[in-house]
Design goal:
20% strand, Spore Coat Polysaccharide Biosynthesis Protein SpsA, Chain A, alpha/beta, 42% helix, ten-stranded mixed sheet
Length: 308
């Protein structure tokens, strides 16, 4: 059986399309675990409606503890030998479960990674995102070409025996996905686009706050330390650390927080203006290297500084 875990919080506008796409799955042996994480809109009621109409849907209501806690609860409640995740404002193809499952059986894979498309707001889908690499890959290739998202993959349940998502934090995928990849004994990448991700400005990870920047930098450091310990090349993790350090410096006022000071040290250590950074981050780094006070002043004037 495949257990699809859906953490839900205040997404009543998007949820029906998400759940309709799950109800249309071609896989005959699947369950949908809906975790209502303390929604204050009608999301919980919508979830109950689907559970009442389709025996494959199961709803669990909790107080609001955050995305990671909801996913972790879903893992505990799931009965399947395989796990998948869907965010409640996204939707999937009818073969979202069936295609990676059959591929996993055929290739004896523990982890199957597939492509996704990004949908801007509620508009039309962009082209498929993800690498054209396909077939059996090693862990380093999976990290390099498979991305960090939770939801564009099928996991053998045993991968989570000793792994859970960090609760009370955002960007939990950056802190966790690499661990699952290195736990898997056999990894398969597929060229199929099976997932449609809604990119919306009011999502958790798009909120420009000092806390989000803090969590992002912390996750990037944990990921870098892990990959370094596995002998991965620096280009696989260093650019992300640089980017997240600059983001934290831009979002937060100068302070004695050890993590902020570590971000300063990272920014000071970046050699030159690396081409691996995007245009915005290269400009930020240039200003940082010229005058740190000017950097923070510019961030305030441009509205980059944000409350906790």
């Amino acid at each position: 059986m495949i257990s699809v875990i859906v953490p839900i919080f205040n997404v009543e506008v998007y949820l029906p399309k998400c759940l309709d796409s799950l109800a249309a799955q071609t896989s005959p042996d699947v369950e949908f675990i809906l975790i209502d994480d303390g929604s204050t809109d009608k999301s919980g009621e919508i979830a109950e409606t689907y559970a009442g109409a389709d025996h494959r849907f199961f709803v669990y209501h909790t107080q609001n503890h955050g995305l990671s806690a909801a996913r972790n609860l879903g893992i505990e409640k799931a009965c399947g030998e395989w796990l998948m995740f869907v965010d409640p404002d996204d939707y999937v193809t009818p073969d979202f479960c069936e295609t990676p499952y059959q591929a996993a059986l055929h290739e004896n894979a523990d982890l199957v990674i597939f492509k996704r498309s990004v949908v801007r707001g509620r508009g039309s889908a962009a082209r498929g995102k993800g690498s054209d690499v396909s077939g059996i890959v090693d862990a380093e290739m999976a990290i390099r070409y498979g991305g960090v998202a939770v939801w564009n993959r099928l996991y053998r349940r045993e991968l989570f025996d000793a792994i859970r998502y960090p609760e009370g934090r955002v960007f939990e995928d950056i802190a966790t996905t690499h661990k699952l990849i290195f736990t898997a004994k056999r990894i398969l990448m597929l060229p199929d686009v099976l997932y449609y991700h809604i990119s919306r400005k009011d999502s958790i990870t798009h909120i420009h706050s000092a806390k989000n920047a803090h969590d992002l930098f912390l996750a990037s450091l944990e990921r870098a330390e892990f990959l370094k310990s596995r002998g991965c090349t620096e280009d696989l993790y260093q650019p992300l650390v640089w980017t997240c350090a600059l983001t934290l410096l831009a979002r937060s006022e100068p302070c004695d927080d050890p993590l902020f000071q570590q971000a300063e040290a990272v920014a000071d250590s970046i050699p030159g203006i690396p081409p691996q950074l995007n245009r915005k981050k290269r400009l930020m780094l240039l200003v940082w290297k010229l005058d740190k006070r000017l950097f923070h002043l510019a961030c305030r004037l441009l509205g980059q500084k944000a409350p906790e």
